[in-house]
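User: Quick sanity check before I run a bigger batch. Here is a single chain. Can you write out its predicted 3D structure?
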Amino acid sequence: MPTISMFYGIVIRMYFAPGEHPPPHFHAYYNEFKASVDIRTCETIEGNLPRRQEKLVLAWAELHQEELMENWNLVMNGENPVQIQPLQ
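Assistant: Done. Predicted structure follows.
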């Protein structure tokens, strides 16, 4: 699963698997925590992160929603996703 961004100890990844289940989403990891985030709504749909890290991830997702959808389309077509600017 390629890493597409990293910031504040948070790792953002997207499965490289055509046929990955909807809705369009990405995975966020922080220490032992992990969560899946819906790209369209920028809401956590599975798992959990500490509150502060969740807020950072959701803010980042809103800022990069279009790029995340482009990456989703790439991985659904069997192509590698591109790196996305980290939250600063």
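The chain has one domain: 1-16+32-88.

User: Great, the batch can go ahead then.
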